[in-house]
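Here is one record:
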Amino acid sequence: MAHIIKQEKYDAPPVVSTAPSSSRMNRINYRQLQNTLSLIPAATSSDALKFNALKSRKKHLRFQRSPIHSWGLFAMEDIDQGEMVIEYVGEMVRQKVADHREKRYEAQGMGASYMFRLDNDTVIDATQKGGLARFMNHACDPTCTAKVITLDGEKKIVIYSAKDIKVGDEITYDYKFPIEEDKIPCLCGGPSCKGTLN
């Protein structure tokens, strides 16, 4: 089943290489980066800088058995509110391909598929080629939120902390499934639990 999120689109600046080729090139690259950042809204430059920081030093996370459901993703370091936690990665496929794969996964007896909607016609399928972010469980009062950002013309799904997260806390987010007649029970067990995912 595809995870549905609210999309927040930003046009981020091009990422400028800061590889130390020469001090002159470093100064040129720095000036270009500063000029680019001055032309865009603060939230966009912040997203680009946070994403670059996330790529250079990944958060310490671990997947393990979860009290919510099966496997979950847990913080192995304190994470402040508003920080990028992890990128949701996998194969980018069209919606028709995602629908076909979901049926195939069910026919093969796979208990779950890990698909996250990127936009109206693109889904990230992390079922067979994904990262740790696929192990995040749903919670009605989640520790994180998902956001679509655009960097260098490429859309990415990144997970931000919605509150301060302590070592050992489970990394969760609201799947935001559409309301349907056939209800999927929610297992988060939180005080504000809605009872269903949809």
